[in-house]
Amino acid sequence: MNIHSVRGAMDEMLQALLLFWLPVAVVPFGVWIFLSSSNDQRKTFGRFLAFVGLVMVSASPWTVPSSPSTAAGHLLGAIIGPAVLILLGIYLISFSGHVPVGRLPRSDRKLGMLLSFVGFAWFAGMHWWILTPQIASGEVNDYWFVFWPTFLLLTSCLSSCAAIASLTIGDNRKTESNYMFMLSGLGFLMIFLGLNVDGPLITTDDFREHLWLSVADLAGIAVGGLLSILVFALVIVVYEKTLPLPPIIEAPQAAELDQVANVIASHVGGDEE
Predict the structure, then answer these.
(1) Statement: the pTM of the whole predicted model exceeds 0.85
(2) Can you tell me the distance from the alpha carbon of 88 to that of 80, in angstroms, rounded to the nearest whole number?
């Protein structure tokens, strides 16, 4: 066995640990500090940790290019821009209407639609233009095949659910619901185009294959979540049935009733006229 090759492999593993996996662990740790702390300094420290972790994960294709795990960091750096635009757009659309708290100006609704449209156009450019995330020239990031159809399905379904919830629960939220339905329709339109229009590096067959895999993944998550809730409820029911019946308390005796009456009479009453 070549000692130099083993040492080189160990160095690569150590670099991946320090420059990729450690920052990955730092991100949720920083978020936890930010959410669980009441001290402003700790909140700032948590935000700083999460930000540094995200930056290091996004920069991992350059800091640890030899590690295959950095493909996730490469994808994160590629999608963070359009994802932030879409999330910010949804926030502006949702809170620029009739909401009891945190209401934004009505003019922000159009800005939210614009940001969401730009975000979707950016993502569309990653599929049908030269913006496709590539690990190397002509080699598409494998995580992109997983992310793109899953994102479209989630966006379409969640936007529709949010629109229906706004109509059902909220008051005078028809306009905001229409915008959410438009966003959902845009997601379904992207899915339809992906199934029928080839991109420069992604064919319709590739998209169709990963779309069905995404449907299976999301369906499995939904079914698993429902089953876990049912199992939890079943455990509670079975546990309650195994509990013994509470002991039957005997009726109070006359002396006890007299004592209670005297206590009540001493605390309740008023001056008689």
Answers:
(1) no
(2) 12
